Amino acid sequence: MPDRAAGTPTGRPTAGESRRPGLRAPVRLAASARAVLLGAACLLMAAPFLWMAVTSLMGQLEVFSSGRLLPETPLWSNYPDALTAQPFARYFLNSLIFAAAVVTGQVATATTAGYAFARFDFPGRDKVFMLFLATMMVPAVIVLIPRFLMIDALGWIDSYQGLISTELVSVWGIFLMRQYFRTLPRELEDAARVDGAGRARIFWSVGLPLAKPAVATLALFAFIDAWKNFLWPLLVTRSMEMRVVEVGIAAFHSTYEINWPYQMAAGVVAVLPIALLFLFTQRYFVRGIQLEGIR
């Protein structure tokens, strides 16, 4: 009788034999290659921020020294000097007011409009919604001048209402909330309707509490977009009292002089709120990416 192959009585290899070092080596090699690629990608993305942090500790002449990557003597005094060279306390207050108002406005308009598009059946609903989506394909820079002319005609240049008013509606936010509301079970709303609740009460007591993950994601993205907004505040504000942080940082550039260490120090301070916000709310960033694919 011929000998069976080593292993089980049926001739199949055992579990121990299937895990031979020769089979595990390619798996380990692939895992190591992925780790190296991900590490290189992370380093490439972090390089501008590392350069900003290092430059903020250099002297004005040291920045232009060839071959120098680190400061010879870190100048921590660049930070208080940069923040006192201009009224950055006022800039941060303006950015905070601007971001808070934008978050409030976009959450209010996006949740109500999104719920209406998801739950109300009115003539032309889908066509109006598609029209909203079509505006997302128009580059923002194209409507920049009409927005400015409208604010100028209202006399709102260099004021909070001019800075905030055109940023209170987010088409992406409406789309996000509409798609999320469509995933919620209608049975809960039907039960509330049987109990005598009206549409407004159902939205406020049933729909909105169930949509907290989407609302938190929308608020987070709205705050970040408002905090780092530069072009619109640059156009609509003129006095130093109305500048936001991003415009204040750019003011370190003048026609005849560029103070890189001061600008980078102010940039590091401006990035810190966003970095801390990201560290504590990473799951909402991931949730936002997931919600974009909801149909």
Give short descriptive properties of this protein.
single chain, 295 residues, mainly alpha, MetI-like fold
How would you describe the overall organization of this protein?
- The protein is an all-alpha fold and 295 residues long.
- The chain folds into two domains: 16-44; 79-291, MetI-like fold (Orthogonal Bundle).
- 67% of the residues lie in helices and 0% in strands.
- It has 15 helices and no strands.
- Helix 4 crosses helix 8 (171-183) and helix 11 crosses helix 15 (282-291).
- The longest helix is centred in the N-terminal third of the chain and has 35 residues, at 21-55.
- The termini are far apart.
- The model has no long low-confidence stretch (mean pLDDT 85).
Secondary structure blueprint with pairings:
Elements (H helix, E strand, L loop, with lengths): L14 H4 L2 H35 L22 H8 L2 H32 L5 H10 L9 H11 L5 H5 L6 H13 L2 H9 L4 H12 L1 H16 L3 H6 L8 H6 L9 H21 L1 H10 L4
Give the second-level CATH assignment, the architecture of the largest domain: Orthogonal Bundle
Rg (CA only): 28 Å
Assess the beta-strand content as a share of residues: under 5%
Query: In the CATH scheme, what's the topology name of the largest domain?
Result: MetI-like fold
